[in-house]
């Protein structure tokens, strides 16, 4: 047996194998340069509901949002996507001043709702939040009856003078939230005894009971099963006929299903805003592409 030959053959085989398992070179840079305040795509629209310019948000010294400019159109569903910690919730909360409750948080820039400054010190924040409602990641019904949860906002805002008016608002809101048939016979039952999906739809009913113009949703389906998720998504499609909806989601399929435009955030920057179809089929920015193809996130 010729050992020299055997060794030579094995070396060739090992070499070939090594060549085969060499990682394929990815010509794209690991982290493209992000230019502050620069967003590719279509961030602006005519006659917007929200006009947001050079928005910066600080938690103490740390800047979580870096000069973001964006318009949000009337009756549009816009999805915010991006890796964890990139500032989606922080930016969303600026739209109805939910960040006000965080002591160390400060907001700079120009933020307008229908042409009026959201951060004007004379603005009535309770009225703002009635116009710009919010649905959170985790359903948070009050420990009250189903009826009282939905009636809460209309009561504090004095939207109904008579019991029959309030009944009508409660029924309409529950119908719009796709929950009426499931709960109409137990409106006095406590809301915390409902399933997670029902609780989330109840929170949506509660948010729309005060006839808001905008509904902000921060990962509204992350605690729901696929059936409850499908119901909430159907609801978003229906609501978009009368409301502006801003939804943060980690599910790209969900963004693709429910939104008209998608905004991609990265490390406090707004990298790209485009028609949802374009973002998911031919994104303009390489970082958007890296994210939607799962290279990071
Ligand atoms: N209350 C807070 N106090 C201090 N820093 C905060 C606070 N909330 C958020 N941050 C910081 O701001 C940055 C953006 O956070 P944010 O919650 O907006 O990200 P996100 O995109 O919503 O993330 P996720 O997808 O995980 O919800 C992060 O660095 C986070 O640590
Ligand atoms: Mg968040």
From TrEMBL:
Q: Which organism is it from?
A: Marinobacter nitratireducens
PANTHER family in alphabetical order: ABC TRANSPORTER I FAMILY MEMBER 17
Biological process per Gene Ontology, one example term: phosphate ion transmembrane transport
Report the residue ranges that make up the ABC transporter domain in this protein. Answer: 50-292
Q: Keywords on this record? A: ATP-binding, Nucleotide-binding, Phosphate transport, Transport
Renumbered residue ranges of the record's region Disordered: 1-38
PROSITE patterns referenced in this protein's UniProt entry, alphabetically: ABC_TRANSPORTER_1 (PS00211), ABC_TRANSPORTER_2 (PS50893)
Name the domain of life this protein comes from: Bacteria
**Annotated CDD domains:** ABC_PstB_phosphate_transporter
User: Which spans does this entry mark as compositional bias, Basic and acidic residues?
Assistant: 17-38
Instruction: Kindly indicate whether the keyword Lyase belongs to this entry.
Output: no
Q: Which Pfam families match?
A: ABC_tran
Q: What is this protein called?
A: Phosphate transport ATP-binding protein PstB
Q: Which GO terms describe its molecular function?
A: ATP binding; ATP hydrolysis activity; phosphate transmembrane transporter activity
Q: Which GO terms describe its cellular component?
A: membrane
């Amino acid at each position: 047996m010729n050992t020299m030959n055997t060794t030579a053959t094995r070396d060739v085989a090992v070499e070939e194998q090594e060549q085969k398992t060499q990682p394929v070179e990815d010509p794209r840079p690991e982290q493209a340069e992000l230019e502050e305040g620069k967003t590719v795509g279509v961030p602006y629209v005519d006659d917007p509901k929200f006009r947001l310019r050079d928005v910066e948000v600080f938690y103490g010294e740390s800047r979580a949002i870096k000069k973001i400019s964006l318009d949000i159109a009337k009756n549009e569903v816009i999805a915010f996507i991006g890796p964890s910690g990139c500032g989606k919730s922080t930016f969303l909360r600026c739209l109805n001043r939910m960040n006000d409750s965080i002591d160390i948080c400060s907001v700079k820039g120009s933020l307008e709702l229908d042409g009026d400054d959201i951060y004007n010190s004379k603005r009535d924040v309770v009225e703002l939040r009635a116009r710009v409602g919010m649905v959170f990641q985790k359903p948070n019904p009050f420990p009250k009856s189903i009826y009282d949860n939905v009636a809460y906002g209309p009561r504090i805002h004095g939207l109904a003078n008579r019991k029959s008016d309030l009944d009508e608002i409660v029924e309409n809101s529950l119908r719009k939230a796709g929950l009426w048939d499931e709960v109409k016979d137990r409106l006095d039952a406590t809301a915390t005894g409902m399933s997670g999906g029902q609780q989330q739809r109840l929170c949506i009913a509660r948010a729309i009971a005060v006839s808001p113009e905008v509904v902000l949703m921060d990962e509204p389906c992350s605690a729901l099963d696929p059936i409850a998720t499908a119901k909430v998504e159907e609801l978003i499609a229906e609501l978009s006929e009368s409301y502006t909806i801003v939804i943060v989601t980690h599910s790209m399929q969900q963004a693709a299903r429910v939104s008209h435009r998608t905004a991609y955030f990265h490390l406090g920057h707004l990298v790209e805003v485009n028609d949802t179809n374009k973002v998911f089929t031919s994104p303009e920015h390489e970082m958007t592409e890296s994210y939607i193809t799962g290279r990071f996130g």
